[in-house]
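This section describes the prediction task in plain terms. A model, or a person checking by hand, is given the sequence of a single protein chain and must write out its three-dimensional structure as a string of tokens. No templates, partner chains or ligands are provided. The sample shown here is typical of the held-out split.
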Amino acid sequence: METIVNISMVTYNRLHLTKQSIQSVLDNTKYPYILTVVDNNSTDGTQDYLKELHNRKLIKNLILLDKNIGVAKASNLGWQMEDSLYYMKFDNDMIVLKDNWLNDLITTIDNVKEIGVIGYSVEGKRYQMLKMGNYEFQTNSSIGGACFLVPERIRVKMGYWCEDFKEYGEEDAEYCWRVRHFGFHSAYMDDMHTLVHKDDNIDSSYRTFKDNCRMENLKSFWKVAKDNCRFVECKTKLEDYKNFIHIGNL
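The expected answer:
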């Protein structure tokens, strides 16, 4: 595997936030990585902006979809574009403030094998603290998918994001449920000031869409999660969305 970390971002409109988020990654990431972006058919100029970054070789893999296929499927597309040691799901409304953020995540998860997935919290509250060896971290039944690092050793056991929910929500909680079921921790770094959440200017129709998706997801969550644990590895369904434009090196 040549790629160390595949930082993968899904975009859908909200160009002003996408610009801030990507720039913060470019400015504050010293650890070796490549950037993969999957766009869910944005119509606000986002795709032109992403093409410009790709032309400047700041984005390695750029995937432009002709319809919005939702967060989980788009994230899986980005995940599979690189054969990497680590995959990072990073939302396009997260702003990185510290240049050691990725190094600290990888150092912790490499040295604490009991951790399955790790990220930074933007939730404003603390969870149970654990100390293993020289490392302290917060642990919870689920961590948010806005900044979510998965090492390859976990991916080969657990597979990818579950695609059985609605277009938005629950893929992160379900992945953590699988991780915990097989004896690993879902962890947050004990640092509340590395990321900032810039999820602003959400109109009422988008908020309603997200809330409706989550209500529908919760009706089937436990059945889906238990089925995935029984089959262990969660597969992707690429045959459902083959028609996309990939700009980059396959």
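For orientation: The chain has a mean pLDDT of 84.
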